[in-house]
Every structure is written in structure tokens, then in C-alpha cells.
Amino acid sequence: MSLLIGWYISVNALTYGLFALDKRQAVRKAWRVPERHLLVAVMLGGWAGALLAMRICRHKRRKTAFLLQFVLALVLHLLMIMGVFLVLSGAESVRWQTLFSA
Question: Which of 4, 66, 74, 102 has the most neighbouring CB atoms within 10 Å?
Fold first, then answer.
């Protein structure tokens, strides 16, 4: 469990940093962090850091296409987590056993 908490703390800190860096680079009109990298960080669990950065840095909040992709990445992350917990809990194996026991 502590490994999972460590993962979420790390990935959210990294995601916050990526969003803040992208905002800084946007203001400077310099090289930007690709949106796909931001979205991958969200999908890996950094959605809380992303939301915090979007609020504090005022970044990527009005870009509708990005916000839709953000929500999709968040939903995919939640589905992945649900799948992992189903597999780890054994619920999935129980379901498959009942399907093939007839």
C-alpha cells in the first residue's frame, strides 16, 4: 500500500511540474511540453497534480479539446485502476470460473 501511495505522490508532483513548466514556457514563447506527455502523466495517475496546476498556474483551463482529452485520460486511468483491483481481489477469476463451470 505504501508503494502505491509513493507512486501517486511522485506522479502527481511530476505532473504538476510538467504543467507548471509548460505554462512557464508558454509565457516565454519557448519550447513547450507536448500535450500528449501531459495527458500520459494524467493517465498514469497524475490527475490531481494536473488539476492543481491548472488551477494555480491558470493553464489549459479554457482549451476545450485538451479538457476533453484530460477527462478521457482520467476515465482511462480509473478504468485501469478498477481492473487492477478486480484482478488483485480475485473477483475476476471467480467470475470466469462460474462462466466455464457449466
Answer: 74
Q: Global pTM?
A: 0.78
- Measured on CA atoms in the order 90, 72, 47, 21, is the torsion positive or negative? positive
Give the C-alpha distances (Å, rounded to integers) separating 11 from 15, 48, 68, 93, 94. Answer: 6, 9, 21, 30, 32
Residues 46-91 have pLDDT tens digits of 999 999 999 999 888 888 898 999 999 889 989 988 888 887 777 6
Quick one: cell of 73?
485520460
Beta-carbon contacts of residue 92 (< 8 Å; ≥ 6 apart)? 86
Q: How far apart are CA 19 and CA 14, in angstroms?
A: 9
> How far, in Å, CA of 8 to CA of 85, rounded?
16
Amino acid at 21: L
